[in-house]
Amino acid sequence: MGNCYSTANLEYEQDSSPRSSVSRSSSKKRSSIESFKTERRCSQAHPSIWLSDSTNLEEDVGRIQLQHRLLRNAWNADFIAPVKEKLQSGIRVLDIGSGMGVWVCERAAEFPKSKFTAIDVLTEVTAKPLPPNARFTQNTLQKKLRLDDKMFDYVYVHFLTGYFTKKAWEDLVFKEVVRVTDSGGWIEFVETSLMLDRAGPITRKLLDATFAWANSRGLHMSLYSQLSRLLESHPHIKEFKRDTRSLPIGNWGGEPGDLALKAYLPLFRITKRQNMEFMSTSNDEYDAMLEKLPNEFNEYRTTFTTYRYIARKS
Predict the structure, then answer these.
(1) pTM value?
(2) CATH number at residue 117
(3) Does residue 209 fall inside a structural domain?
(4) What stretch of H or E contains 311?
(5) Is 75 helix (H, G, I), strand (E, B) or coil?
(6) Per the domain annotation, does 135 fall within a domain?
(7) Domain range spanning residue 183?
């Protein structure tokens, strides 16, 4: 099996390095963390990316992996586009917003006849090997993708809320997603609302600070609410469907609620610095608020909504 790597071509290679797996994993993790930090710093020149400026790789890794598990449990599926039979026969798949590569690794192993390309702003952030029918490449989506028109039969896009301005999303990202999808191909968007329903006073205060900081940088925080309009008005979208799931946060919601709590709390930790600035609060005061959140979620029976859109290109 080949390792995660960053490349601009479309070859699917295997790693033939004679180095031991332990040495390769250790060096990969060190280079990944340094790359991660560098990309965070470089992103400051591009205000359309990064809801968080955290350089805590472990924090972000854990959060993204939990999001993946949470969505799988909520939907009882890893995708809802009607492409399973095609995946079994062999098609070309693009995963945008791949993060740690969990989704693409699992799907590539599940459907060995299909070829998978995953892109994200990070590069080589996981030491987990990719199956030989998958490859990973870095791309900030700040400009046109180096991919041909109609190159993929299925494009899976997830967790882009908070990474782009409204203009960048509509004028570049959305158009690029449609452009690289083949005629008759399927697009699937997966997003989670950062707004919480039945939120308590501490939760509202933290969310207000998070949104205030995001708005100051022009970041688009309600991407999920714009997709219906964009899909409906696009001349090359033949049909689309929208579906939602409401999920509990906190142990009042049982196992799903516990999982959501573990996935959501890191958001407020990785946005701590900017939230403290907008809230004019001290480090100790902020930490004290976070400690109270689990009980507040239970008291108010807080929930959030996850969205899926599937669309077919004409």
Answers:
(1) 0.80
(2) 3.40.50.150
(3) no
(4) strand 303-313
(5) helix
(6) yes
(7) 22-38+49-196+221-249+305-313
3-state DSSP call for residue 183?
strand
In terms of Cα–Cα distance, which of 198, 172, 310, 304 is closest to 248? 304
| Residue reference for tokens 């039945």 | 198
Cα separation, 69 vs 227, whole angstroms:
24
- The backbone torsions φ and ψ at residue 9, rounded to the nearest 5 degrees and listed phi first, read -90, -175
Dihedral, CA atoms, 7, 104, 17, 138, nearest 10 degrees? Answer: 20
Determine, yes or no, domain membership for 4: no
CA torsion sign, 276 to 279 to 285 to 290?
negative
Q: What is the DSSP string of 208-277?
A: HHHHHHHHHTTB-S-HHHHHHHHHHH-TTEEEEEEEEEEEE-SGGGHHHHHHHHHHHHHHHHHTHHHHHH
H/E segment holding residue 136: strand 134-138
Q: Name the burial class of residue 284, with classes exposed (0-12), middle (13-18) and buried (19+) by CB atoms within 10 angstroms of its CB.
A: exposed
Domains contained in the chain, number: 1
Query: How many residues comprise the chain?
Result: 314
Say if 169 falls within a structural domain.
Answer: yes
Give the C-alpha separation, 243 to 245, whole Å: 7
From first to last of its 314 residues, the chain has per-residue pLDDT tens of 333 333 333 333 333 333 333 334 444 444 443 433 433 333 333 333 344 444 455 556 666 777 888 889 899 999 999 999 999 999 999 999 887 788 999 999 999 999 999 987 655 545 467 799 999 887 767 788 889 999 999 999 998 877 788 888 888 889 999 999 999 999 999 998 888 999 999 999 999 999 998 888 888 777 777 888 999 999 999 899 999 999 999 999 999 999 999 888 888 988 899 999 999 999 999 999 999 999 999 999 999 999 999 999 99
Of 303, 312, 22, 39, the residue nearest 178 (C-alpha) = 312
- H or E stretch at 188: strand 181-192
Q: How far apart are CA 306 and CA 314, in angstroms?
A: 27
